[in-house]
Design goal:
The structure holds two protein chains of two kinds.
Chain A lengths: L2 E4 L4 E4 L4 E8 L5 E7 L6 E7 L4 E4 L2 E6 L4 E6 L8 E8 L7 E3 L3 E6 L1
Parallel strand pairs in A: 2-11
Antiparallel strand pairs in A: 1-3, 3-8, 4-5, 4-9, 6-7, 7-8, 9-10, 9-11
Chain B lengths: L4 E3 L2 E4 L5 E6 L6 E7 L6 E7 L2 E5 L6 E5 L5 E5 L8 E8 L5 E2 L3 E5 L1
Classes of the chains: A mainly beta, B mainly beta.
Amino acid sequence: SQKIEQNSEALNIQEGKTATLTCNYTNYSPAYLQWYRQDPGRGPVFLLLIRENEKEKRKERLKVTFDTTLKQSLFHITASQPADSATYLCALDGPGNTGKLIFGQGTTLQVKP
Amino acid sequence: DAGVTQSPTHLIKTRGQQVTLRCSPKSGHDTVSWYQQALGQGPQFIFQYYEEEERQRGNFPDRFSGHQFPNYSSELNVNALLLGDSALYLCASSLDEKLFFGSGTQLSVL
């Protein structure tokens, strides 16, 4: 079955630095991959979607890469701010393009001032 | 424009009881998905409803059932509650691949 792995350890960085989060997957070739942000006690919020034929996508301070050979996505936040502190979830579509999303366990990012 | 709303926000039940959770999708969205999120884990897909039919189902027992109404709102029912059903239950609505989540219902089973 499909498996998604994100860094289970929290990532602590200094304000202004670039945060890089990793998402690896196995046993599947998704048509697209998404990244969500989740704050404590809230539902996830959609950030970016990248398709299998796209290498990179940007939105403001966010950048996502998608390497279908390595089966890996990297999520970058440049010029990080304390307000970026949250848990970031990667998700890929299930087999058959059904709209079912499979989520990783999330990586918690802490940006210190 | 109201986003996805879920009720109740918190619920405490005892083992063996039944529970119904409710979800109103974002305006204009016709597809509703339900997810279960245990503490420290990512959301796990329960099922998805479109046009009042269950379109997809995850690896959850038949104790978990749902319904979608003509106005696209949805309910999640869980029968014979177990301690392990304690989790945050998230509803998400969509028109395309992007999901819009509600804040969830925190269910505690004692």
